[in-house]
């Protein structure tokens, strides 16, 4: 018996040729099947129409640009409208303020006009009274009655100086506020006349009408101060020069004149000398 008879061989047993052939056939069949299927799939894919999908992306067209421009115009117009409205509101406020000021001014003018009319009415009433008195005097003169205005007709001393001065100013101009030597107003003439004899009189008619002793019109003397209106609120003054005459700075159209008392009957007189 061989010494290797019981030693198992280390070689793998060979497969039979038939088994290998079968397996090779199966594998080849599978591969053939896959190849046919793949070819068929490729052919089908080649014959089918391609599938496409279109995505519409927004584009900036002329209409969109117009809309954007119109929106900008609308915004600008709105801003302009706001600004215009603000200007109108400011103008309305200014107009209301001006209207209020005009109303206040109109009220002031109306009040001033009312006062002027009242003063004119008072002066008209005073003139009417003087005219009535002149009518009475004229009637008395026509019946031979003596004048209600009497007194000394001749001036002496300081009175003569005053009379001489005022007569020498006759014909000069009347200028409001003037005190000579080329022009006077009524109280300026009286004040300057008395200054010639060292007597200082107040400047205005109202004060001059109360500067001396009140005397009646039927007891006048040359040099007496005549006034028109009431004592303390006289609106005109002059100087009695005797013989029923007076000298005064009447108005801008007449200037300084010498007139009879009947020309404009005074309402009172004061004596300073």
Describe the structure.
The protein has 273 residues and is of the alpha+beta class. The protein folds into 2 domains: 76-146; 148-271, endopeptidase fold (from Nostoc punctiforme) (Alpha-Beta Complex), CATH 3.90.1720. It has 5 helices and 8 strands. The protein has helices at 17-47, 62-142, 157-168, 186-195, 205-208; strands at 173-174, 183-184, 213-215, 225-228, 236-242, 245-251, 255-260, 268-271. The strands form 2 sheets. It has a 6-stranded antiparallel β-sheet. Strands 1-2 form a two-stranded parallel ribbon. A hairpin with a 2-residue loop joins β5 (236-242) and β6. The protein is rod-shaped. The model is unreliable at 17-28, 30-46 and 136-150 (pLDDT under 50).
Record keyword descriptors for this entry.
two-stranded parallel sheet, alpha+beta, 2 domains, single chain, rod-shaped, endopeptidase fold (from Nostoc punctiforme), 6-stranded antiparallel beta sheet, 273 residues, 51% helix
Q: What would CATH call the class of the largest domain? A: Alpha Beta
Low-pLDDT sequence parts: 17-28, 30-46, 136-150
Helical residue percent? 40-55%
Lateral arrangement of strands in the main beta sheet: 3-8-4-5-6-7
Question: What's the CATH superfamily of the largest domain, by name?
Answer: endopeptidase domain like (from Nostoc punctiforme)
Main structural class? alpha+beta
**Radius of gyration, taken over Cα atoms and rounded to an integer in Å:** 66 Å
Query: How is the biggest beta sheet arranged?
Result: 6 strands, antiparallel
Percent range for β-strand residues: 5-15%
SSE string? HHHEEHHEEEEEE
The termini sit apart by 204 Å
Tell me, rounded to a whole number, the average pLDDT: 78
- The counted number of beta strands is 8
CATH topology of the largest domain: endopeptidase fold (from Nostoc punctiforme)
Q: What general outline do the C-alpha atoms trace?
A: rod-shaped
CATH architecture of the largest domain, by name, is Alpha-Beta Complex
Give the number of domains. 2
Specify the number of helices.
Answer: 5
């Amino acid at each position: 018996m061989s010494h290797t008879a019981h030693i198992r061989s280390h070689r793998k047993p060979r497969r039979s040729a038939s088994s290998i052939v079968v397996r090779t056939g199966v594998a080849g069949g599978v591969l053939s099947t896959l190849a046919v299927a793949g070819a068929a799939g490729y052919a089908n894919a080649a014959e089918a129409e391609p599938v496409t999908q279109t995505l519409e992306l927004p584009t900036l067209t002329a209409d969109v640009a117009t809309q954007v421009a119109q929106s900008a115009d609308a915004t600008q117009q709105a801003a302009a409208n706001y600004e215009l409205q603000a200007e109108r509101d400011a103008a309305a406020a200014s107009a209301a303020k001006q209207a209020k000021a005009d109303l206040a001014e109109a009220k002031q003018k109306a009040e001033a006009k009312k006062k002027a009319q009242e003063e004119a009415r008072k002066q008209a009433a005073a003139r009417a009274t003087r005219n009535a008195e002149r009518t009475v005097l004229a009637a008395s003169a026509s019946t031979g009655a003596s004048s209600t205005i009497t007194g000394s007709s001749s001036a002496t001393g300081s009175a003569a100086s005053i009379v001489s001065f005022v007569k020498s100013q006759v014909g000069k101009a009347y200028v409001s506020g003037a005190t000579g030597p080329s022009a006077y107003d009524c109280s300026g003439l009286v004040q300057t006349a008395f200054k010639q004899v060292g007597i200082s009189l107040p400047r205005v008619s109202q004060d001059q009408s109360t500067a001396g002793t009140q005397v009646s019109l039927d007891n006048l003397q040359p040099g007496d101060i005549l006034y028109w209106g009431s004592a303390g609120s006289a609106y005109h003054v002059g100087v009695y020069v005797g013989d029923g005459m007076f000298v005064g700075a009447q108005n801008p159209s007449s200037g300084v004149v010498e007139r009879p008392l009947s020309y404009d009957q005074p309402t009172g007189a004061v004596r300073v000398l």
